[in-house]
Amino acid sequence: MSRKNLLIILGTRPEAIKLAPLILKLRSEKYKVTVCNTEQQRELSNQALSFFGLKADINLNVMTSDQSLFDLQSNILLESKRVLSSDNFDGVFVQGDTMSAFCGALAGFYYKVPVFHIEAGLRSGDLYEPCNKTQLTLHKRQTLYRLAQIPHQNYHLIKLAPLILKLRSEKYKVTVCNTEQQRELSNQALSFFAIFFWIKGRY
């Protein structure tokens, strides 16, 4: 079986911090991983990557002065199109609810490449809740959830119970942390297991 060719799209410091362990793990497993930084937060995202000894393979440099959301979204989407058209990717990974994640997922969807959404986030179903200022964020989260082939949520981990049982039946060592005391660790660990399960052709 040929190794999977994976594209990870990020653009902000939180994305870089949360995706860095995944990038390192995927590369340690000998998968081909291309890191694309939209540079939505240029200095902060590159600084975060460098902390983990990482550097983006592709920098999109999408930010300009006094840029509107229209321009930002179109720039990231068009640049993501260019990246996706340059290679045959088996999966696109995004994290959170940023414009980089949204446009990266949408571009992957247009190219019919499986989209993996790490930390899929809350979806209230009400555009005006929890507050008016989060309408755009909620819209992006809801749309990302629909675009992603496998959204790795950071709650309702019971949904992953069948996967955990399957992994254990195949002799994988699976540790499930307390979701309250070690929430972030358990979320990342379960997401990683789900991702590797798919990558190795078992999902």
What do these coordinates show?
It is a single chain. With 203 residues, this protein is α/β, with parallel strands linked by helices. The chain folds into two domains: 5-153, Rossmann fold (3-Layer(aba) Sandwich); 157-203. The protein contains seven helices and six strands. The protein has helices at residues 13-28, 42-51, 69-85, 99-110, 135-147, 161-169, 183-199; strands at residues 5-10, 32-37, 58-59, 91-95, 115-118, 150-152. A six-stranded parallel β-sheet has the order 3-2-1-4-5-6, sandwiched between helices. Helix 2 links the parallel strand 2 (32-37) and strand 3. The longest helix has 17 residues, at 69-85.
Question: What's the arrangement of secondary structure elements?
Answer:
Elements: E1 5-10, H1 13-28, E2 32-37, H2 42-51, E3 58-59, H3 69-85, E4 91-95, H4 99-110, E5 115-118, H5 135-147, E6 150-152, H6 161-169, H7 183-199
Parallel strand pairs: 1-2, 1-4, 2-3, 4-5, 5-6
Helix pairs in contact: 1-2, 3-4, 4-5
Instruction: Please tally the β strands and state the result.
Output: 6
Structural class: alpha/beta
The tally of domains stands at 2
Rg calc: 17 Å
Low-confidence stretches: 154-158, 178-186
User: Distance between termini?
Assistant: 15 Å
Fraction of residues in helices?
A: 40-55%
**In sequence order, what are the helices and strands, one letter per element?**
EHEHEHEHEHEHH
What is the CATH domain class of the largest domain? Alpha Beta
CATH architecture of the largest domain: 3-Layer(aba) Sandwich
Mean pLDDT: 77
